[in-house]
Amino acid sequence: MAKVLNFKGQWRSYQERILNNLNFHLLDKKLHVVAAPGAGKTTLGIEIISRLNKPTLILAPTITIKNQWKQRILDAFLNGEQDVVSTDIRNPKFITVTTYQALLAAFCGVEDNEKENAFEEDDEIERTVCKRFSSTKADKIITILNNSGIKILCFDEAHHLRKEWWKALDYLVSNLEPEQTVALTATPPYDVDIKEWERYEELCGQIDEIISIPELVKNGDLCPHQDFIHFSRLRIQETEQVKKTYTRMMKFLYSLKDNKILINSLENSRYMLFPDENLETILSEPEFYVSIASFLKHAGRKIPQKFLKIFDAKEKELPEFNTKYGKYLLTGLFFKHSEDFADISEELELLKAQAKNAGVIQQKSVYLEDSPKIKKMLANSIGKLDSIVDIVKLESNTLKENLRMVILTDYIKYDVTDCSSLGVIPIWQTLKDNFSNISLGVLTGSIILIPQNIKSDLDNLLKEKGLENGVSVTEFERDGRYLKITPKESCKSHIVNLITHLFNNGKITVLTGTQALLGEGWDAPSINSLILSSTVSSFMLSNQMRGRAIRIDKNNPNKVANIWHLASIKILNTFELIKSIIPQSTIGDGEADDNELYDFGKLCGRFEGYEAPSLEKPYVIESGIERVLPASFKSKQENLTEETFLAVNRFMKTKAIDRNNTKLLWEKCLAEPYNSPSKNLTTGVETSLKMKSFMYCGGYFYMLTIWATVFGSFAYYLTVLTRNLIPLFWLTMVFVLIMFVPTVKFLKCGTVEGIIRQIGICILETLAAQGLIKTSLKNVKIKSDFNKELQTTYFTAENLSPEENNLVIKALREFLDPIENPRYIFIRKNLLFDMFAQTDYQAIPTVIAQNKKYTDIFKELWKKYIGDCDIVYTRSIEGRQILIKARKSAFSNLVRPKSKRISKWM
After folding, report:
1. pLDDT of residue 243
2. How many distinct helices (H) and strands (E) make up the chain?
3. What are the extents of the domains in the chain?
4. What is the strand order of the sheet 900-905 is part of?
5. Main-chain dihedrals φ then ψ at residue 575, nearest 5 degrees
6. Is residue 748 pLDDT above 80, yes or no?
7. 104: closest CA among 76, 73, 66, 137?
8. To the nearest 5 percent, what fractions of the chain are helix, strand and coil?
9. Bridge partners of 472?
10. What are the residues whose beta carbons fall under 8 Å from the beta carbon of 353, sequence distance 6 or more?
11. pLDDT tens, 808-867?
12. DSSP secondary structure letter of residue 569
């Protein structure tokens, strides 16, 4: 059969690389390509479909992207002569392009195409209609597709599908039984749990090829760019609201110690009086029962020794009662274990009502240090409007008429006229009142605004495209200097294109809109400044939005893009606040850190997916938020003040102004890896794990000293006694034999990077034994490097497939991170004549712990590469006790902050 589609352009080097390997990748009937925004993913997908040359159904996540597929086929592969493209799933052609939403709608029996479109845009309609999912109606659609000869399914961005869409997609794949699937994505869901990843992989197949952002910048297909953070202070009224919220919550929590009914019930509960008889129950959820003891101690009651014995603890070692243990206590009393305290059920109901009034109970859950109300206030703080003004001022003064800025947010907030919340209209209102040197526009699905003075430009475009009758242009009632554009339903996408054209040509220099419309699939290559005021923290969605700004602009070959991320800071000393409310409270200084920096914490999640040069030495391309933070901030993370954050803002603005430096940093960082064939983009684990002196280094030297003293003294005594050197010789040989294996292991494990390397090898070989690593281990190159300046260790295993590497990363992070509730716990012991003992505990990674056979393999590999150890099953009573002991001592031998998934050039 003659090829229907023929590409009319030239391939980029990385596209050609994938196409040259196409036959090999197609062997498993599932092709999966990861291509960063700007890699020409759509064009590459069409060429793959062209070479397969069989009727194809393409599924896209939005109408905008669906239309892009159709337009790209017409522009780059057809001469407009052949009628081979359809966007109607009920009337398929050689190439049929639709959306996941429309597929679900069709399977639910939605007949009208206009209703389908409404269905695609309205979440509520979608949830309602989905209940009508019918296999009979779905089978009719599949019959139509089969009769049209559809053999290929192409999934575009199949990673962030809603639950409702999966059902339709699973049914389609199972019943259509395509000969080949092609999956294309810019952002695989690396941050999901293993079950969701397996589901994604089952649909798309293993990742065959990756085109990274640094590779695209090197090839000139993406522009140099940098990420910057701007911290926003809460407005005074927001700070007061936070104080009021905390005050109510803390007063309720610390008033419990005066509740005699509650205290007497807890003190006389079977868990306190007869702990041995309730041992299994206590060990199944130790946090709750420890919180009871902590509360009783806080209330001045004695804790039974029998209870303390279970946890191998003294009363003074019990944790102080604070918001953390208050949450455990209240969650248990109000929800999980209320039936165990039926004797005070009326009192608990009364307390529950008080907790709701105090804001402690929200959405049937207990919140204290992590109040959703406060988190939402931080995420949507109107203080971010001040940050936006600050950034627009900086960028407009720097770029002047060359500014092309887009501001993305979550909500339109059309009814908000006083800038009292964060949204498209409040941002527009704020900027128009503060700036006269910018041309401001609004572009969303429901409202479009442009300045009055560019009306003639719009009229010319409407006339040129024949759309004069497809749109209503009226003066905006809130400000006569702006026009409101209302397109007919059939013209919406065309009007979006016209506004984009005005923006690209500089008639509009600042455009604000929603991430739903502009965040994915919208293309405006002229963007050189992007503000993400959206609250999206997902690695996938935030990378999609960021991708809008980093595309090259043919009209501006020297383009350098700045991407701004906003984070609210709550400079409110929670410790001092609670002390002022409850003078005798026992809250710790760092207890509310998660709440204080909640918005910043979301940014940390975003930055794990962003690869770009670091702003300070050592200059290297890597992911992670540390690459943009100044050393002064990192050194003060234990004592953050308002001035600390303001200093970061000043640092960011200084760096953002110097776009030429951003370009030079990319050139510098890319030069070495690309000139050295052994260096490339790697993804691994970064940890700031540190070992105390006795471990490995110290332990080895203690051992060396003791054995040397014993053998030296004995050898000296025999030599003097016999006046012969032969005893000295033989004792020395025995000493060498005894110390040989410890010395070899010391040389491999005597440093932080050494032990992490050996741990990585144990995990890698165990996964290989499970059949999860199919790459030959002979080809795998392990690296473990210690950064003296940052005091961090970076581990990576090169030459693995992306899925295999992802598996190793997840397993190593689980092993290194603080213990939670593993199935098996790993115990590492170091003994010297039983005089000194040091025991460390780690969690056996979930993927290994699924089968005891594999935990035994891991144990033997550990003994081979590192030393003695034991593994305990935690679902037994004995195992539970060891797990509690492990949690208790997890930080006594190791300072164990959480590890991070990091990509960098090595």
Report:
1. 84
2. 39, 29
3. 13-211, 225-235+382-438+509-571+608-676, 238-376, 694-905
4. 612-613, 621-622, 900-905, 681-687, 792-798, 781-787
5. -60, -50
6. no
7. 137
8. 55, 15, 30
9. 486
10. none
11. 988 998 888 878 778 898 887 654 444 444 567 888 999 999 899 999 999 999 888 887
12. E
- Give the position of tokens 């009055």: 452
690 bridge partner residues: 895
State the amino acid at position 121 in one-letter form.
E
- Cα separation, 50 vs 77, whole angstroms: 9
- Residue 191 · residue 605 · CB < 8 Å: yes
- Report the DSSP pairing between strands 365-366 and 440-443: unpaired
**pLDDT tens digits, residue range 2-19?**
788 889 888 988 899 899
CA–CA distance, 219 with 215 (Å, rounded to integer): 6
In whole angstroms, give the CA distance from residue 602 to residue 876: 37
Residue among 429, 397, 434 nearest 412 (CA): 429
The Cα–Cα gap between 256 and 696 comes to 47
pLDDT digits (tens, 9 = 90+) for 306-317: 999 887 788 888
What is the DSSP annotation of 147-170? Answer: HTT--EEEEESTTS--HHHHHHHH
Distance CA 435, CA 427 (A): 12
Per-residue pLDDT, averaged over 254-264, amounts to: 94
Q: Is the peptide bond before 618 cis (omega within 30 degrees of 0)?
A: yes
- Closest by CA position to 315, among listed 323, 325, 324, 304: 304
Q: Do β-strands 482-487 and 448-451 pair in parallel, antiparallel, or remain unpaired?
A: antiparallel
Q: Which residues pair with 531 in a beta bridge?
A: 407, 564
Q: Bridge-partner residues for 682, per DSSP?
A: 904
Cα–Cα separations (whole angstroms), residue 611 to 261, 263, 541, 624, 903: 57, 54, 15, 8, 7
* Distance, CA of 217 to chain centre: 23
* 723 pLDDT tier (thresholds 50, 70, 90): low
Pick the CATH number of 13-211 from 2.30.30.30, 3.40.50.300, 3.40.1190.20, 3.40.630.30: 3.40.50.300
Closest CA to 855 of 745, 754, 762: 762
DSSP 664-695: HHHHHHHHHHHHSTT--EEEEEEE--EE-TII
Query: Do the domains at 13-211 and 225-235+382-438+509-571+608-676 have one common CATH topology?
Result: yes
**Which H/E stretch holds residue 281?**
helix 279-284
> What pLDDT, in 10s, does the model give residues 340-384?
999 999 999 999 999 999 999 988 899 987 778 888 888 888 999
Contact 540, 547 (CB under 8 A): no
Residues near 764 by beta carbon (within 8 Å), at least 6 away in sequence = 773, 777, 780, 782, 797, 808
- Contact, 498 vs 465, CB < 8 A? yes
Q: Provide CB contacts within 8 A for 547, sequence distance 6+.
A: 36, 37, 38, 186
Q: Which of 605, 559, 596 is nearest to 576 (CA)?
A: 596
| Backbone dihedral angles phi then psi of residue 225, each to the nearest 5 degrees | -155, 165
Is residue 736 very low, low, confident or very high in pLDDT (cuts 50, 70, 90)? low
Q: How many CB atoms lie within 10 A of CB 487?
A: 18
- CA triple 228-637-685, angle to 5 deg: 70
Q: Which residue has the higher pLDDT, 725 or 337?
A: 337
Tell me if residue 852 falls in helix, strand or coil.
helix
DSSP classification of residue 697: I
CATH architecture of 225-235+382-438+509-571+608-676: 3-Layer(aba) Sandwich (3.40)
How many angstroms from the chain centroid is the CA of residue 492? 33
Tokens of 482: 């702006």
Note if the pTM is more than 0.90.
no
Would you state the structure tokens that stand for residue 441, as one six-digit string? 């526009």
